[in-house]
Automatic annotation (TrEMBL):
Domain Enolase N-terminal, first and last residues per copy: 47-128
Active site, per annotation: D204, K338
Organism: Colocasia esculenta
SMART domains, per database record: Enolase_C, Enolase_N
HAMAP family in the cross-refs: Enolase
Identification of the protein by name: phosphopyruvate hydratase
Mitochondrion recorded as keyword: no
Pfam families: Enolase_C (PF00113), Enolase_N (PF03952)
Keywords carried by this UniProt record: Glycolysis, Lyase, Magnesium, Metal-binding
One example of a Gene Ontology biological process annotation: glycolytic process
CDD domains (alphabetical): DD_AtENO3-like (cd22962), enolase (cd03313)
Upper classification of the organism: Eukaryota, Viridiplantae, Streptophyta, Embryophyta, Tracheophyta
GO MF annotations in UniProt: magnesium ion binding; phosphopyruvate hydratase activity
Amino acid sequence: MSVQEYLDKHLLARKIEDAVNAAVRAKAPDPVLFISNHMKRVVPSAITKIKARQILDSRGIPTVEVDLYTHKGMFRAASPSGASAKIYEAAELRDGDKGKYLGNGVSKAVKNINEKIAEALVPLYKHLADLSGQSGLILPVPAITMISGGKHAGNNLAVQEVMILPIGANTFEEAMQMGSETYHHLKAIIMDRYGSIGCNVGEDGGLAPNISSFREGLDLVKEAIERAGYNGRIKMAMDVAATDFCIGKKYDLDFKSPNKSGQNFKTGEDMTEMYSQLCADYPLVSIEDPFDKDDWEHTKAFTDLGVCQVVGDNLLTSDPKRIERAIHEASCNGLLLKVNQVGTITEVIEVVKQAKDAHWGVIVSHRCGETEDSFIADLAVGLATGQIKAGAPCRGERVVKYNQLLRIEEELGEQAATCETKSYSTSERFESAA
């Protein structure tokens, strides 16, 4: 093969010319370095090696971590795990050997990856967008945990999370600033009223003062928003996780208080009335799992009121059949997407499309047993879900997701401004309910 044939075969002259032109347009101070980096970016990644291992998640329970090597570098990801009932979601592969990690080891899964999976990829947001056919990249509105309760904290609060949505932010960076400032104002309020013990955090990083009523939690967060100066720009949300305190067809709001348990039972109708009043009294625009995972009747009745976004988590478990039923019956209007409940990224893309076609909100979510992996940040951007739930601006396994979104916004540069405009237009769904 002649030199000219070699150049023609690999389109070298054209590629080098493009790199030089890009350096000139950018007025790069170091054109050689710029051209080198430019050429690296245009070369497609090829997987050269994959290595899996067993690590621990944030609850000290084994999970799988994978190192994926390409000629561009090594990339790492790990799988989280949740504590919610797994009746309807994909089963995790655990070893079952009670002599090791109480049966929770994942050496079988690690062996499958190392010995059976010949080709794998930990995709970033652009690749996910390509896979899903998504033309626009959108940075999500974060649902930031402020107060933890339910099974996520040791207080007497039945509701699992009180969150904020900084829908008035112009950029994701500003959204995180608003969230962090509000969190620290809340911490100061709790310190003043409950002492330092009230500033202990739950599994998702939310503050956990020993309060017991929904209104106490909402009042504290509302005051923190006011102190931070973000009235009108920050809305509120709750993850009730009502399955955890549903007994038969009633709801025990004092289930965490042994001395009171059974004295504060509410019917589905009582709960609906309570939620409606809370939405009227607070800037509460989204409620997750307001009823039991199988209480389709009351979930639908509450959704029909149109007072807020009603999100299905335990109700749906990211399962296509349950989502299909919910769409058909108009049982809710929001999907909490947990990747490892579905099973594969291909299936994740399908359920997101399913929810979007029904004009639902989609919230990419972390799990209570998390890792330092930031994949769900890329997923939220790549699939343009518009919302992400990753916990409080506290604890490394939560913050790493937010930090990755800050990096993505920075990488998108001017493009991010357009993305943010689109992203925060999702606030319209909340504004109409506020």
